[in-house]
Specification:
binds zinc ion, single chain, six-stranded mixed beta sheet, two-stranded antiparallel sheet
């Protein structure tokens, strides 16, 4: 990616120096409404368990909010750092440059639709933290919480991307951030609210299918962002090979691939994020069209 002296976004909170956080069960709030990048995995005694996920989550809180319950989100000021930050300066700089670029692109793309883009805030944390949707844990991967309109990111996930998921490079990291920003765009456009209403009447399988559409659209939005992202000089920030790197990441985090790796079998009814092929296709569609309208809705 061509990222030079672009501005950094100030819409962040650095909670990495917080030390420990509450962890699970800290406030009894459950998982609430969060929207993760990948189907949630929690290590239990060394065994990685794939949670069937979303329907369970939605039954506790719903996509669009309400009832996340019990745990107050982090109350720090935007742009502030709690305690002694443990954040890698390079990851921080990169993440905030990408975030700033998403702010520029989405402000421009949403304006013709009559939507004033209010930026999301990105919370950096280490290991665990509290979100408006309940406890945040690194094992969950990055996620967006509609209740506090924040993205929660443990930048250790970037290492996991390159090592465990074998998707090294800068664009896979940007894709992760842009996917979560995509959920914020869905939130602003009312799509998350619609999904919540549909899910309230749906069976578990149907609820999962709605969730898959939401996730694929967020992948598509990540592609739309990438296609429109420019340096201050007006050059595309995407360079040769970047989208291929992203495709490798999208492939690695498809539900079928993850399920095959972690449980040995594939259960399509339990998919919450789409197959590897679907995720790659969604990212590609967004990137090739550069248009928000090319991203399938519910
Ligand atoms: Zn997602």
């Amino acid at each position: 990616m061509r990222l030079g002296d672009e501005r950094e976004s100030g819409n962040f909170i650095d909670d990495t120096g917080r030390g420990g956080g509450l962890g699970f069960g800290g406030g009894g709030g459950g998982l609430g409404c969060l929207l993760p990048l990948i189907a949630s995995r929690f290590g239990i005694g060394g065994v990685v368990v794939l949670l069937v996920g979303y329907f369970l989550l939605s039954s506790l809180g719903g996509l669009g909010g309400g009832g996340g319950g019990g745990i107050a989100p982090t109350s720090q000021q935007v742009g502030s750092t709690t305690g002694k930050s443990t954040l890698d300066p390079t990851s921080k700089h990169f993440t905030l440059q990408v975030l700033a670029d998403t702010e520029d692109v989405w402000s421009k793309l949403l304006q013709p639709k009559g939507i004033n883009y209010t930026p999301t805030q990105l919370v950096f944390y280490s290991e665990s933290d509290q979100s408006g949707c309940g406890a945040a844990q690194s094992a969950m991967g990055p996620f967006y919480c509609p209740d506090d309109k924040r993205i929660y990111l443990d930048t250790e996930f970037f290492q996991e991307l390159s090592q465990r998921f074998n998707a090294p490079g800068d664009f896979p990291e940007a894709y992760v951030i842009a996917h979560e920003v995509g959920h914020h765009v869905q939130d602003l456009m009312g799509t998350l609210g619609q999904a919540e209403q549909l899910q309230a009447r749906a069976s578990e399988t149907e609820g999962n299918a709605i969730q898959v559409k939401i996730e694929l659209q967020a992948d598509c939005y990540a592609g739309v962002w990438a296609a429109n992202a420019k340096t201050p000089e007006g050059q595309p920030i995407m360079e040769q090979g970047d989208i291929e790197e992203g495709m490798r990441a999208a492939e690695a985090i498809g539900d079928d691939t993850l399920q095959r790796e972690t449980q040995g079998t594939v259960v399509p009814d339990s998919f919450t994020h789409g197959t590897s092929a679907q995720r790659m296709n969604a990212l590609r569609t967004g990137y090739q069209s550069g248009s928000i309208d090319a991203c399938k809705s519910l």
